[in-house]
Please model this.
Amino acid sequence: MAITDDVLVVGGGIAACTAALSAAETGARVRLLAHKKSTLRQASGLVDVLGYASGEGPFSDPYAGINSLPGDHPYRVVGEDGICEGLRIFDDAVGDAYQGGHTDSNALVATHGGAVKPTARYPKSVAPGLASATGDMLLVGFEGLTDFDAPVAADHIEAGGVPFGVRGITVSFPRSFRSDAKVTRFAKALDRDEEVTGGTVRSVLADTVGDELDDEARVGFPAMLGDDHDEEVRDELTDRLGVPVFEVPTGPPSLLGLKLEDMLFDALDEAGVRISSGNPAVDFEASDGRIETVLVDQKSRMTPYQADQIVLATGGLVGKGLDSDREHVTEPVFGCHVPHPADRYEWSAPEAFGNHAFARFGVVPDDELRPTAEGGNPHFENLRAAGGVVGGADVAREKSASGVSLATGAVAGRLAGEEASQ
Ligand SMILES: Cc1cc2nc3c(=O)[nH]c(=O)nc-3n(C[C@H](O)[C@H](O)[C@H](O)COP(=O)(O)OP(=O)(O)OC[C@H]3O[C@@H](n4cnc5c(N)ncnc54)[C@H](O)[C@@H]3O)c2cc1C
Model:
């Protein structure tokens, strides 16, 4: 017996979650079908909408650059309204854990490498570290946590021309762990305020940093200040240091990304979205230009999932929503057309941060976000696409990754939900 829903969203990242939430808002019965955990656990947890386009930027207004994006960019399909719809769904899902929704302007957030980047939504714990806030900054890194080199990050931020001083120090964490300990282990020690020589983890850390504090007005740590009790940890360190404490988004594995993933999945539960995870969609059956069944590989058997409408949100080359060999780029589940130069040498530019064609690989959507075949007609009447699997955006250069996922997810999910209820 096939499992039957109104809307089936294939994928488990920010695009899939947004599509499922958006479809659920229409009253449709929605299922999210995710293979593995999304790339959010590697991501910074920041939500970038648009920082740069056509050599211009950083934009203080993320909507300012939309018209200078290429005509096949997903933002040109969903428009400013689609972006607002995606941000509204995101804001509803995360509540006051994120900030930035009070304004249409980008914030400038310092990241672990010392880059200051334009972003539209950022975790509350990051807020005191914004480049728009005033006051000199002390950045604190930990011996053994090589991902965040505070003195180097401080030099980079200052070199970027910020209107305040930045200094970086490296201290030892009050409790020692194995050299391969994960960032979550540091966070748990702070959550539990574990006993250590000279006091507890929080008190000893505050004393160590307090001794180093000159007259800086705020102190930034890598994003590992607690997991379940993060607010309590930040409040205690702030009290003890006498200045606001903030987190600097870090690279993988990212606690801020993990927390965002948890929030999105909690929102799916609340919205009544059914979740099937752990197995990939691998094939489908279609008839009369419509997908009838999606086949999921559950190790020893293929399980059929049926839905009136399908949203493909399996990510780009990183999320495995796109596949490539030496000659071809493919969309592996539904076989949608992914245009790419025949000559592989044209897939990338010589410079590392150049204008790479591969960065824009993906399915080509029509104006209802349905992936199209080479001739421009939709492959299937009831298949839409969202997020990294959609081509046309160079999200790393534009600083638009999560924004594209939110906007296309919101629009694809809404259209799928509306269509299913007709
Ligand atoms: C290291 C890193 C840092 C980032 N930093 C930022 C940042 O600072 N700001 C920002 O805005 N964005 C950032 N992003 C991007 C953002 O987190 C998302 O990766 C991006 O928006 C794409 O999201 P997505 O949902 O389309 O795809 P993904 O997050 O890639 O998710 C794809 C999902 O689909 C599932 N899937 C794939 N194939 C199948 C299948 N056959 N069947 C079922 N499920 C399948 C995967 O298991 C996964 O759950 C970063 C990403 C990475 C990797």
Notes: Residues 104 and 270 are 27 Å apart (CA to CA). The chain has two domains: 3-98+257-420, 112-248. Residues 10-16, 33-40, 42-44, 46-48, 252, 280-281, 313-315, 318-321, 333, 387-388, 401-402, 405 surround flavin-adenine dinucleotide (CB under 6 Å). The first helix runs from residue 14 to 25.
